[in-house]
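Name: Conidiation-specific protein 13
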Amino acid sequence: MPSIFATLNFVATYLATSAFADLGKPALRPDLSYLDGPFWRYLTPTHATWDQWGNGWIPQSCADEVNRNHKCAITNVQVFNVHYDDCSKAWVMCRCNNAEMSILNMVDAFGRLPVRYRQWIRHAVAFSDGTTSAYAVNAEIVFHKNAYVPTLWIHESTHILDAYAIPVNGVPYSHTQTWLDTINQDPKVPDNYANSNSAEDFAQVANVALFDKLVPNGFGSVEPNWNQIFHQYATAQWVMGDRLFQGGTCTRRWPDSNIISMTKVANVAAGKIGAKPAYMPTNNNTNAPPPLIAKETPSMEIIRDTHFAQAD
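Structure predicted for Conidiation-specific protein 13:
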């Protein structure tokens, strides 16, 4: 079996293949905004505390996204350790200080994801922008503007799981013939955005799959024509397994991105540099067992999501 970390470098080449072609199917709904209300009710927030890093330090992957974003000076990035009760290792989040999403929004939205979903994400990053958009890259999920919406966080996180948690022979599950065949068993796809390509369809279907497991009476409680995408969300439930269930503790984590000094990428006065933060911050207030720390470094090409109607 080829290494996932080698083959994921070929993700971008799928842009020219049938896996990334417009699916050409009718949409069940225009968007998934009708799922957000019940998600806010039934996706239980996870208790968390957080502490801000001292000035002058940033994870390398966050610095990379600042450089990619070009709308936030690196010295304006706030970095936080976020300690959730269900994982003994904290997550590090990065936020431009003018981002529409507050750190409280980020902590809350991320903590509502089931922990076995959440554990595949390395860092969450937030920027300001004129329009709401998001992308997944490596094991980071990056948001712009008003992305404090459950379906968006599930969507972006699903891109990461698609690549790392459930790949087939090193290829994201959504690129497989099995998934394409599953799509073709149904007369429709969940919404207009899902029709973009098989990867976006899988990320939107994952919202439906989680909703169906989580909300009383399932997807049929809000969608009378649930059977028109049944094969897709039932297959997603099967392949995702217990990652869709709430409760439990994290069992694995990525190593944190290397911590670098902002002096390497910006003019920061030496006197404004605080103490270097812990490389792998832990939560001393949890009884959760220590997770397995992956030895690999995630390397996935960007999957950009340019606009979500449900965030407007």
